Amino acid sequence: MAQRPITSSPIPPYSNPPIEPQFYQPSEFAISALSFGVTTIVTTVVNHNYVIGQLIRILIPSKYGSRALNEQLGNVITIPAPNQVEVAINSIGTDPFIASPTFVPFQSRTLPQIVAVGDYNSGYINPTGRVTATTAIPGSFINISPL
Question: Which of 14, 16, 45, 17 has its CA nearest to residue 31?
Answer without folding.
Answer: 45
